[in-house]
Amino acid sequence: MSTYIFDIETGPRSRAELAECVPTFEAPSNWKDPEKIRAYVAEKEAEWFQSAALSALTGRVLAIGYLDAVTDELGYFATGDEAADLAAFWRLVAPTGYLNADLIGFSSNRFDLPFLIRRSWHHRVPVPADLVSGRWLPSQCRDVLDCWRCGNREDSVSLDRLAQFLGVGRKNGSGADFASQWATDPSGALAYLANDLRLTRRCAVALGLIAETQPSL
Fold this sequence. Notes:
By secondary structure, the chain is of the alpha/beta class. The chain has a single domain, classed as Ribonuclease H-like superfamily/Ribonuclease H (Nucleotidyltransferase, domain 5). It contains seven helices and five strands, in the order βαββαβαβαααα. The protein has helices spanning 34-51, 82-93, 108-123, 144-149, 159-166, 178-184, 186-206; strands spanning 2-12, 59-68, 74-77, 101-105, 141-143. Strands 3-2-1-4-5 form a five-stranded mixed sheet, with helices on both faces. Strand 4 (101-105), helix 3 (108-123) and strand 5 form a beta-alpha-beta unit. Helix 2 (82-93) packs across helix 3 (108-123), helix 5 crosses helix 7 (186-206) and helix 6 (178-184) crosses helix 7. The longest helix has 21 residues, at 186-206. The radius of gyration is 19 Å and the shape is globular. The two termini are 21 Å apart.
């Protein structure tokens, strides 16, 4: 069975698509300066659109990255056609309609997989049956963050902090900036994604989720 490290990067859906979802922002009622009010409202709208990337209702998948833990093959589904990218990823990991690979990510059972599944539903892209046939994700879905928590769901750590703790590297940016970087510097955005994949793999090795005898990056 193949083992893929995977990670997704998301962004907000277009302003046109979200027009009916954007809340009405108002400055404090005692403010009088029109410029300050406009600046306040613009700032709140910008914050809302940035956070929209974190929900499958208001966000979309911009890129799906994967790293074969055995062959070191690094690849992306990032064509700009979200439905096509989702379908291509599912074909990679579940060509028969059921998972035929171990999927390892960071916070992937809480965020990445649910986001991929929900966006697939939106586009009517078939989802691997074993991902949605029970209350829990199948055992092939292994989350580095869940491993770190040691059963304590309230305990958390960022990928950057965990990588530093384990002595395996550092992040080279922030996921919050991915959408804007993707629009202006796609190659730099993919380099950020590639670094996250490599960090996730190194953390997985350090925590014993992947054998150390496999090739290192």
